[in-house]
Amino acid sequence: MADDLDELLDEVEAKFCRDTSLPQQRNQEDQAGDQVQDKSKSPGKSKQDATKRVDNDDIDALLEEILDDDNDAKNRPTISNIDKSTRGGNEAATQVVKRKCCPVFLGGSAIPHGVGTSNSKRVCDQLRCISCDFRIASFDDQEWDSTCDYLFFRNNMPDCQRLRAKLKKCKGARAYACQCSWHTAVALTDLRAQAQLRWVCGKHDT
Predict the structure, then answer these.
(1) Pairwise CA distance, residues 105 & 189, whole Å
(2) Which of 9, 99, 131, 153 suits a disulfide with 198, CB 3.0-4.6 Å?
(3) Beta partners for 98?
(4) Above 80 in pLDDT, residue 55?
């Protein structure tokens, strides 16, 4: 009888104890599997996070380089600007100031050429006719012959060799001519007093 009871208790114990231990074992196995999965996932996640941080750092570095390049490009003088500033400086350095006679004087060979003013009595050697647009030719110690006429100067100006055919020696005189007018001066003469002459000062380089 006692033997039968012991066998029955063994069977009950084996049956019920095994059934209750199985869920606990399963739970332990599931928890272990979850931990393994978490461990397997965590390196990948950390790698992704690291990659994102690297990408963000690279983007920031590229943006800084682009901004630096833009600032350098803005501050850097262009070739065209350098050329313009250099050209402007050269033009300013080589520009020649021109002066005009006021009043304009005619005169004999003894009176020097130059820029005529009320204080500086010099005869103009840059005369131009506003009627025929010729530059005025002058001959020192010469005067025009009385037989000169408009056609002579019209046909021979500005050939100085051919003009000499109507010139005569006259010490101290100066003969002037363009294609349409002529004049002989000995003393200093204000051009405004010679209304028939359409001559003006063409400006002097100084």
Answers:
(1) 5
(2) 131
(3) 205
(4) no
d(CA 12, CA 204): 138
One-letter amino acid of 127:
L
Residues 62-98 pLDDT 10s:
667 666 665 555 555 554 554 555 555 555 446 678 8
